[in-house]
């Protein structure tokens, strides 16, 4: 601390104090009144003000109030010089912003000690200011980065939603509806369908482990392997000599994806999946379940039946084996593949809705179809969750088998 302003209407007292402080190495300025002190203070910065309490015109209390009302570049430590030791007077001084008091006539050692104490406080205040400046600067940089990242994530969400090119298609004898609701900007769920050759429909539900950008990138990669737009690159379809394509068995599709993930892509993520084909001539569905929640059949009477035998997720073990399962749909029945965001949804007490609760939601809304049913499912799930944010992505594939002819 170098700059001190001494304020006293007594020239002798000012001179004595100024000389004492100058000998201690401080830069000292003087003012003979409160008004003059404000003029000097306005012209230059000071670290500390030593002011007599009793002065004609503007006294020390009023000067302290005026200093505190001004916006200085840093904190100014204010010491009042007084012969008044009354506690009420000291309280008034503290109320207006005084930091310390020094009795008159002053003792040079006490003066030095109190100024040293003020210096320590000012030093801490400056360190705090610098810390705040650095924090403010860091927060500003973080906000800039966050805004940039947020814009990128918004675009990523649009791109991920575009992976579901169609949310509904009607083949005449069957129709498929899709729902995809990430719980964040982007998610790790993927649903889809494609034409799998004469009278056959392929459909799938995938849930990549984790959340965020890495999971979303993997869903984009998987979507390219199961794309209808490029049958020659769809691993579920093998081109025949006549140019048509035949279907790979669902368990072989799972095995091939498992090889890609464990040996070629070397990803740290894994995913669960339900993948199947519908034969529209017979209503038979062949599917493989790879650690995904069990599929559910919603019959014409509105009753639910969960089917499936679990299976291994894809990408955990390179030598994993996958099995084929079959089920035969009757006209009017719906087969639903869904992510665990539904069955693992929690209420405010942390209790999961599980298969039973999810089945009740489906049965309650069985009179609805397609998008209206999806909306009702989410609405009832939100009611179960008590309005709190969903902890996982929600995705669903609903296959409706209408007729065999």
Automatic annotation (TrEMBL):
SMART domains: PP2C_SIG (SM00331), REC (SM00448). Residues 3-119 form the Response regulatory domain. The modification 4-aspartylphosphate is found at residue 52. One of its GO terms (biological process) is phosphorelay signal transduction system. SUPFAM superfamilies: CheY-like (SSF52172), PP2C-like (SSF81606). Pfam families: Response_reg, SpoIIE. One of its GO terms (molecular function) is phosphatase activity. PROSITE patterns: RESPONSE_REGULATORY. Keywords: Hydrolase, Phosphoprotein. The keyword Membrane does not apply. Signal peptide: none annotated. The keyword Phosphoprotein applies. PANTHER family: STAGE II SPORULATION PROTEIN E (PTHR43156:SF2), STAGE II SPORULATION PROTEIN E-RELATED (PTHR43156). This is Fused response regulator/phosphatase.
């Amino acid at each position: 601390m170098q700059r001190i302003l001494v304020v006293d209407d007594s020239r002798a007292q000012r001179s004595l104090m100024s000389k004492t402080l100058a000998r201690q190495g401080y830069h000292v300025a003087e003012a003979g009144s409160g008004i003059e002190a404000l003029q000097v203070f306005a012209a230059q910065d000071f670290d500390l003000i030593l002011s007599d309490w009793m002065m004609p015109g503007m006294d020390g209390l009023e000067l302290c109030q005026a200093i505190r009302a001004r916006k200085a570049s840093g904190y100014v430590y204010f010491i009042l010089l007084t012969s008044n030791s009354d506690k009420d007077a000291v309280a008034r001084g503290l109320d207006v912003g005084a930091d310390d008091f020094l009795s008159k006539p002053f003792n040079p050692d006490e003066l030095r000690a109190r100024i040293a104490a003020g210096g320590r406080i000012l030093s801490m205040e400056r360190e705090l200011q610098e810390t705040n400046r650095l924090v403010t600067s860091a927060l500003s940089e973080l906000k800039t980065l966050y805004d940039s990242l947020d814009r990128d994530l918004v675009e990523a969400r649009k791109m991920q939603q575009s992976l579901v090119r169609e949310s509904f298609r009607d083949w005449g004898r069957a129709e498929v509806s899709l729902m995809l609701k990430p719980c964040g900007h982007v998610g790790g769920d993927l649903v889809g369908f494609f034409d799998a050759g004469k009278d056959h429909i392929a459909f799938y539900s995938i849930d990549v482990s984790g959340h965020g950008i890495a999971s979303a990138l993997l869903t984009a990669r998987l979507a390219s392997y199961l794309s209808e737009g490029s049958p020659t690159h769809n691993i579920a379809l093998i081109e025949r000599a006549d140019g048509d394509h035949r279907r790979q068995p669902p368990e072989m599709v799972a095995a091939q994806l498992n090889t890609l993930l464990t040996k070629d892509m070397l990803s740290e993520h894994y995913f669960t999946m339900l993948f199947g084909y519908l034969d529209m001539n017979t209503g038979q569905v062949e599917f493989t379940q790879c650690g995904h929640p069990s599929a559910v059949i919603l019959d014409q009477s509105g009753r639910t039946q969960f089917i499936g035998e679990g299976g291994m997720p894809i990408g955990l073990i390179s030598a994993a084996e996958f099995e084929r399962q079959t089920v035969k749909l009757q006209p009017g029945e719906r087969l639903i593949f869904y992510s665990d965001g539904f069955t693992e949804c929690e209420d405010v007490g942390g209790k999961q809705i599980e298969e039973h609760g999810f089945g009740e939601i489906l049965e309650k809304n069985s009179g609805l179809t397609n998008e209206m049913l999806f909306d009702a499912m989410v609405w009832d799930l939100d009611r179960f969750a008590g309005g709190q944010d969903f902890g996982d992505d929600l995705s669903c594939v609903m296959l409706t088998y209408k007729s065999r002819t």
